[in-house]
From TrEMBL:
<dbReference type="Pfam" id="PF13476">
    <property type="entry name" value="AAA_23"/>
</dbReference>
<feature type="compositionally biased region" description="Basic and acidic residues">
    <location>
        <begin position="244"/>
        <end position="263"/>
    </location>
</feature>
<dbReference type="GO" id="GO:0016887">
    <property type="term" value="F:ATP hydrolysis activity"/>
</dbReference>
<feature type="coiled-coil region">
    <location>
        <begin position="752"/>
        <end position="779"/>
    </location>
</feature>
<keyword id="KW-0175">Coiled coil</keyword>
<dbReference type="InterPro" id="IPR027417">
    <property type="entry name" value="P-loop_NTPase"/>
</dbReference>
<feature type="coiled-coil region">
    <location>
        <begin position="534"/>
        <end position="568"/>
    </location>
</feature>
<feature type="region of interest" description="Disordered">
    <location>
        <begin position="244"/>
        <end position="266"/>
    </location>
</feature>
<dbReference type="InterPro" id="IPR038729">
    <property type="entry name" value="Rad50/SbcC_AAA"/>
</dbReference>
<dbReference type="GO" id="GO:0006302">
    <property type="term" value="P:double-strand break repair"/>
</dbReference>
<dbReference type="Pfam" id="PF13558">
    <property type="entry name" value="SbcC_Walker_B"/>
</dbReference>
<protein>
    <submittedName>
        <fullName>SMC family ATPase</fullName>
    </submittedName>
</protein>
<feature type="coiled-coil region">
    <location>
        <begin position="601"/>
        <end position="726"/>
    </location>
</feature>
<feature type="domain" description="Rad50/SbcC-type AAA">
    <location>
        <begin position="6"/>
        <end position="204"/>
    </location>
</feature>
Amino acid sequence: MTPLTLTMQAFGPFAGSETIDFTALGKSPLFLINGPTGAGKSSILDAVCFALYGQTTGNDRDAVQMRCDQAADALLTEVSLDFRLRDGTYRVRRVPQQERPKATGEGTTTQSAEAQLWRLTPEGEKDECVVARKVTDANSHLHRLIGLDANQFRQVMVLPQGKFRELLLAESKDREKIFSQLFQTQIFQRIEERLRTQANQIERAVNDHRQHISGILAGGELESETALAQEVAALTPQVGKARQRFDAAQRQRRRAEQQRDDAQALQRQFEARDSLAADKARHLEQHAHIVMLRDQLAQNDQAQALRPHSTALAQAQQTLRTAQAEHRQTEATLTAQRATTEQAKRAFEAARQRQTDLPTLRERHRQLGEFIHKGQQLSELETRLQTARAAWQQADGTLKRDEAQLDSIRQQGEAISLTLERLQTEGQQLASAPAELSRHESLLSQRQALDELTRKGRELTTQQHQANEVLNHRRGELEQARRYATEQEMRWHQGQAALLALTLEEEAACPVCGSLEHPAPAVKHADIVTQAQVEAARAAEEQSRHALQTAERQVQQLTQQISYNAEQTQRLSQQLGEWASQPQGELQQACEQLRHQVERRKHVESEINQQNAARDALRRDWGTLDKQLKAHRPVVEKAKEEALRLESQRDQLSQSLPEDARNPVILRQTLTELDNQIAEFEKAWERAQQMLSTSETQQARVEEQLRAAEQRIERDGQALEQAQAKWRTALQTSPFESEAAFQAAQLDDHQRQDMARQAESYQRRLAELEGALQNYHAQLAEKSPPDIAALTTLTETAQAEEHAQLESWRALDGRLSTLQGIGQKLSAAHAAQAELEAQYRVWGTLSEVANGRTGNRISLQRFVLGVLLDDVLIQASERLVRMSRGRYQLVRREDPSKGNKASGLELDVADTYTGKSRSVATLSGGESFMAALALALGLSDVVQAYAGGIQLDTLFIDEGFGSLDQDALDQAIAMLSELHMGGRMIGIISHVSELKEQMPVRVEVRASRHGSSVEVKGALF
C-alpha cells in the first residue's frame, strides 16, 4: 500500500482542510515529517490509519475525539486518502460520528459515522463505488484488500510513537498471526487442522470401537472375554449331552408313531372289508334289471340282419323322389333361360349401334384435355400472382409499419428526454428532503418531549401546591398531637401524685421530697389519665411526625422534579429555537410536507429509473428497427418485381385460350361427363357381348341337364321295384311277424351302447367286489382289531418327551451359538480396532507433530514461519550490527517455552560483548528502537522477496531517533536511504535537528492559535 494524497479536515490539530500530496515528494521518497511538539506530526499517521481502519495509530483516542476544537462548527471532521495497491488505485473517505449544527434552526444534531470507498481511474477520477456509506462494509473490504488488520498494520507498516517495541516484544502467537497474514501461510494452518480433524476422527472411532466391544459383551450379559471363554468351555459338553438325550427321545417317538400307524392301517383294513361286503349286497339288487337289458340287446341283434334290405328300399324310394324333383326344376330353369337369351340379343343390337359415335367423342375429349391443361397453368399463375401480390403488400405494409414505429420511437424518446429533464430537476430540488425530514422529525420528537415536559411541569406544580397544603396540615396535626401528648403526660403525673398523696401519713417521710410535713397534698380528680393513654398520645404524636416527614419528602421530591423538568424544558427550548414557540401542529405539518417530499423523491427516482430503462429499451428498439428497415427495403423491391413478372405471364397465357374455355370448372365438368359417356358406351358394348355369349351357353347347358334328368327317373324307377321284391322276401323268412314288430325291436346306437355298458359295468363291479372280499378275508384270517386309543396315548407321551428334550437342547445350543457369534464379533472388532490404532499411530503422530504437541511444541505453520523469521532476522541483524557497531544480532530462541506455552517465534538478542544471548526485553530504549527498526526493515525486505506476500512498500516511523547517538543515527539514515532507493516510501516523524539537515524532502507541520497547517518542502515537481 502506497499513499498518494491525504486530505484532513477539522481533524486533530488541523482546523481547516489540509492536503498532503505524497506523489510530489518523488518516486519512493525518503522524507521527514518535521514540526514542533504538539503541532500534529503524529496526527498525520493517525489520519492515514483512521482513513484505512477507522482507528488511530496509538488507538488511545476514539475517532470521535479527533475533531479539532478550533474548527468551524459548520466544517465536518473527515479524512480522505488516495492510495495505490498492487495494480489498482483507490480512494477512501471517512467521517466519524460528531455533532454538527442543524440545517435550520439553532442547536446541533448528531452526524452518524460513514465511509465510502471508490476505485479510481488512471487519471485519478472516480470509476466504481465499492462501498457507498456503511462503515462495517468499508472495514471488511479494506481488510481484504490490504491483508492486515489495524493492529497488524500498526506493527509492520507504521511504528507509532511509544509503540515501536510491540512487534519486537510480541509473543509467538501474536507474531504468528502477523507473519501468517504477511506470508500467506494459512495453507499450513489448514494442513494442521486437517491432520488434527483426521486424528480426532480416528481417535473417536477407536473409542467407539472400545464402547462397541463393551456393548457386544453387555449384549451377551458377559462381564469380560474371560467369562465368555469359560462359559463356552462349560456349555460345549452340555450341548452334546442334550443332543444325545434329544436323539434318544426322537427314536422313541418314531417307534411309537410307527406302532400307532400300523394299528391304524390294520383298523382301516377291517373297516374296508365290512364296507365291501355292504357294497356287494347293494350291487346284487340290480340283477333283474340287467337280465331285462340283455333280452332287449338279443332282439336288436336279430333285427340287425334285416336292416340292409330295409335300408336299400328306403334309399331307392328317396333316389326316385330326388330325380323327379330335379326334372321339374330343370324344366323351369330352361324356360327362364330362353327368355334371358332373347333379351341379351336385343341389348347386343342396341350397343352395336352406339359404337359408331365413339370416334367423335374421343376427339372432343382430346381438345378439352388441352384446354384444361392450359387452364391449370393459368390457375397456377393466378395463384402465384396472388401470393406474390400478397407478399408484396405484406412486405410493403411491414416496411411502412416499421417506419411509423421508428417515428413513434423518435417521438417517445423526445418525450422521455423532456420527462427525464423535468424529473431530474425535481429530484435535485428534493435531494435535501431526507436530511430535512430526519432533522424535522428529530425536532418534532424534541417538541413532543418539550410539550410533555410542559404538561408534566404543570402537573408537578399542581402536585407541589397540594403537597404544600398537606405539609402545612401535617404540621398542624403534629403540633396538636404534641400538645395533647404533653397534656396527657402532665395529667398522668398529676394523677400519680394524687395516688401518692393517699399514702402519706403524719410524721412519715414523703417518698418524693422526704418531708415529714404534708401541708398541701395533691387532690385526686375523677378523670385520672392512665399510662396506656399517655403512650397512645405519644404514639399518635409519633405517627403525626412520620406523616410530616413523609409530606416533607414528597415536597422535596416534587421540588427536585420541578427543577429537573425546568432544566430539561430549557435545554429542549434552546435546541428547538424558534420551533419552541411555534404551535406543534405547524411542525407536524412541516414534517408531513417533508414526508411527502421524501415519498415524492423516491417516486421521482423510481420514475427516473423507469424512464432511463424505457429510453434504453427505445434505443435498443431503434437499432433493431433500423436494421429491419435496411433489410426490408430490398425484400419489398424483389416482391414487387416478382408480382409484375407473374402478371405478364398470366396475361399471355390467358390470350391463348378461347373465351368459352377459360372457365376451368365448366371445362373439367364437361370433360368428366364426356369421360363418363365414352366409358359407358364401351362398357355397354362389352357387357352386351358378354351377356349374349353367357346366355346362349347357359341355355345349352340347361337343355343337356333336362335330358339327363329324364334318364335318371327311368333308371331309379326300375331300381325301386327290385328293392321292394327283396324286402318282402327277407321279412317272410325273419322271426318277426310284421314290419311293425321289426321296427319295435330296433335300437339306435346310443341305446344299444348304453344297455351294453350297464350290463358290462354290473358284471365287472361284481367281479371286483368278490375279488377284494376274498383278498381281505385272506389277510385278516388270523388277526383281531387293534387298541387305537392306547397306542395314541403312548405316541403323545413320546412326542412330549421329544419336545422337552428339543427345547432343552435348543436353549443350550442357542446360548452356545450366541456366545460363538459374540466371539466372532469380538475378533472382527479387535481387528478393526487394531487397524484404527495403526491409522492413529500415523495420523495421530502427524497431527501431534504438525500441531506442536511434541518436542519443542512448534506447529507446522510456526515451523514454516520460523524459517521465514530466520530470513527476516538475517536481514534485520545485518542492519542492527551496523547500527550497534557490531555488538547486537537478532536471533530466534531455540529453547522451548516453559509449561504449555507455544514457542518457536520468540526473539533474543545475541550480545557479542558477552558472547551470550538474552531477551530483547533487556535492551535499553535506544537499543530497542534500533532493534525494532532493523526488524521492521528486515521484514519489509523478506515480504517483498516472497511472491504472493503482502506488499510492504511503505513505512512510517514516529520518533525514537532522539534516543540514538550520532553514529547510530547516521547508520539508521543510511539504511533508510538504501531502503527507499529499493522502491519503498519511508516517512520519518522526528524533531531531531540532524535529521532535518540530512533530509531535504520534508513535510513541515506548523502550529498556531487557529490550528495547524502543513507544507511540503523540497518536493520534486
